Amino acid sequence: MTAPLTITVNGQPRTVAASPWRRLLDVLREDLGLTGTKEGCGEGECGACTVLLDGAPVCSCLVVAGQADGRAVTTVEGLADGPLLHAVQRELVARGGAQCGICTPGIAVCAAAVVDAGACKGGDARAQVRELLAGNICRCTGYQLIVDAIVAAAADVERGQP
Amino acid sequence: MTAYLRPTDDAHAIALRAAHADYLVLAGGTDLLVAAHHKPVPVGILDIAGRFAGITVDAAGARIGAGTSWRAIATSAELAATWPILPAAAREVGALQIQTRGTIGGNLATSSPVGDGLPVLLALDATIHLASVRGARTVPYHQFCTGYRTTALGADELITAVTVPRPAPGTYLGWRKVGTRAAQSISKVMAACALEIVDGRIATARFGVGAVAARPIRAAAAEAAATGQPPTAAVAAAVAAALRHDITPIDDVRSTAAYRLEVAGNLLARFVTNAGRTQG
Ligand SMILES: Cc1cc2nc3c(=O)[nH]c(=O)nc-3n(C[C@H](O)[C@H](O)[C@H](O)COP(=O)(O)OP(=O)(O)OC[C@H]3O[C@@H](n4cnc5c(N)ncnc54)[C@H](O)[C@@H]3O)c2cc1C
Ligand code: FES
Ligand code: FES
Questions:
Q1: B149 in contact with A, Cβ within 8 Å
Q2: What is the pTM of this model?
């Protein structure tokens, strides 16, 4: 009955037989086995489920499968280029920007999008990070090391360091 | 099994709306899809995300398509130049992920008393553009919200756009949202104003206030207290006092009626004194 949906996930076209009403979050985790994307609240508040839909950061708990049909989705599994981590991932690791790790995939995806768009640099870089990442809640770190990592990643990307 | 339709253009969306009255109209989904997995499964989805989108500015004013995202409004230099309170309000909707998906049309259709776009559109004297297969029509925004989460939108209609006129020269525009934290928090109180100052007096005043009544409202008594008066501290106090006749705030999980009354009055008073200050 269900018309199959085709979603380009991390560069690969994937066909799934899912109801168009199924949450993109569940399609990714349960149908495609990409469990990097986390569910915190299921209500758009926490950002743990952040993925890129056609390059823009969205909460995958607030997108249904039908809306992703024919579109490109990037999850945390698709941020690295083979063994080479995205600058945001590398700096989160280097600076200890993760503790329990539940928020980390969402933070990495959202931060990668804003850093790749050229934001979070210059004199008010920390304030920009605080504003643009305000939809990603972390209950462990107190945010300082996360902000440090994203500001450092933005500087890396500006210098042309992958 | 839920049917899913994605119109190919705006006219197609309007035709599909008429043909499938029982389908869920889905734009950004940031209101509709909250805890979607616990909600009843719809018969069908009419996905209008990306339709009716875009901002155009001309001599008369700005036209913002209903499907324009808060992020597009937040980052519009053209809106910032003439209607800075629109991008300012957009930047305070939810957070980046919500702004990316959420649309001004969805905010208008949901018509929550705490919708952030709504007081701003009241202050800017916006017009809502609606369309169905029966034709297009416009409704002044202050007549669009009819009650608690109810609007003038017909069952077969879609919101296509909202237009705002250019403010008269010398108009002070203000916006302020008061909540628990800057991001993701539903407002306790919010207010916006357009105060046109001519020869040192407030010639026209529009105050839009949210979270203080069943729907976002224009504060008629406060506007009357400001009109024709100079933007002084005394007039500011009179405006705050008059606001008591306009609003019916409640106690709820986010705040108390007494707090909302006090803070809403303070916001309007601050607008008046700020308008006076910009006069030099
Ligand atoms: C975490 C979170 C934080 C939020 N924070 C805020 C906030 O700070 N301030 C605020 O104001 N809101 C906030 N919201 C609510 C929401 O983001 C906004 O109301 C948004 O503008 C809704 O737009 P949408 O396109 O996502 O609507 P949808 O959820 O797609 O639709 C909402 C309603 O509008 C109807 N609709 C949509 N477009 C049209 C149209 N063109 N014609 C007719 N009907 C239409 C739908 O049928 C539905 O009934 C928040 C939501 C979440 C999840
Ligand atoms: S799970 Fe999607 S925002 Fe919390
Ligand atoms: S590291 Fe535990 S929630 Fe952020």
A1: no
A2: 0.95
Quickly tell me which residue has 């992020």 as its tokens: B71
**Cβ pair B33:A64 closer than 8 A:** yes
Of B1, B6, B30, the CB nearest to A44: B30
Cα(A56)–Cα(B184) distance, rounded to whole angstroms? 18
Of B148, B165, B182, the residue at which a domain comes to its end is: B165
Residues B160 and B192 in one domain: no
CATH class of A87-158: mainly alpha
- Chain A residues whose CB is inside 8 A of the B40 CB are none
How many domains does chain B contain in total? Answer: 2
The string over A119-149, giving b where at least 16 C-beta atoms fall within 10 Å of a residue's C-beta and e elsewhere, is bbbeeebeebbbbbbbbbbbeebebebbbbb
Which architecture does CATH list for A3-78? Roll (3.10)
Token code pair at residue A19: 């109801």
What is the per-residue pLDDT across A7-58, written as a single tens digit (0 to 9) for each? 999 999 999 999 999 999 999 999 999 999 999 999 999 999 999 999 999 9
Tell the residue nearest (CA) to atom 38 of ligand 1: B106
For residue A139 and ligand 3, the question of a CB distance below 6 A is answered with yes
Atom index in ligand 3 nearest the CA of residue A99 equals: 1
Min Cα distance B242 → chain A (Å) is 36
B102 and B241 within one domain? no
User: A146-161 pLDDT, tens per residue?
Assistant: 999 999 999 999 998 7
The interface predicted TM-score of the complex, written ipTM, equals 0.96
Rounded to an integer, what distance in angstroms lies between the CA atom of residue A93 and that of residue A12?
Answer: 27
